[in-house]
Design goal:
- By secondary structure, the protein is mainly alpha-helical.
- It has a domain of 91 residues.
- Helix content is 54%, strand content 0%.
- The longest helix is centred in the middle third of the chain and has 20 residues.
- The N and C termini lie far apart (89 Å).
């Protein structure tokens, strides 16, 4: 089977853009809103076990990992916005979805998944104010 000469530039462009050095310089995809995440999650749930074959499964997994990375990154700020018992915390999917559903419906289109997750985790692991000794 012969290839058209017109397909060569397409192949070259695909290889060029898939290069790790080039891909790292491309702008990041826009943040996913809570509403988009919930809509995609519902469609995946409706697919049952076939959800694992959907590209949205990997997409939502990556969005969740990015949200976790955003939360861990803000833990380095001073003052600390949260005080988890460890930096290696895992939560259940139901807890993650609970953080998304905790955002009021009218705010879900404007709130990113990362912002909702950070807010939920910071609320779950508040820093205890240092008690002041009585005089």
């Amino acid at each position: 089977m012969s290839r058209s000469i017109f397909s060569l530039p397409m192949i070259a462009a695909a290889l060029f853009l898939s290069s790790p050095l080039i891909a790292a310089d491309l702008p990041a995809a826009p943040a996913m809103s809570v509403q988009q995440f919930l809509n995609k999650a519902k469609r995946l749930k409706d697919k049952g076990p076939f959800a694992l074959l959907s590209p949205d499964f990997d997409l939502l997994s990556n969005v969740g990992k990015a949200a976790d990375n955003a939360w861990k990154a803000q833990l380095t700020h001073s003052p600390k916005p949260a005080c988890p018992p460890s930096s290696d915390i895992s939560i259940k999917d139901s807890d993650f979805m609970g953080f998304m559903r905790a955002i009021p419906k009218e705010e879900r289109d404007q709130t990113s998944v990362s912002d909702a997750f950070v807010k939920g985790m910071n609320k779950r692991y508040p820093c205890q104010e240092a008690s002041t000794p009585a005089s």
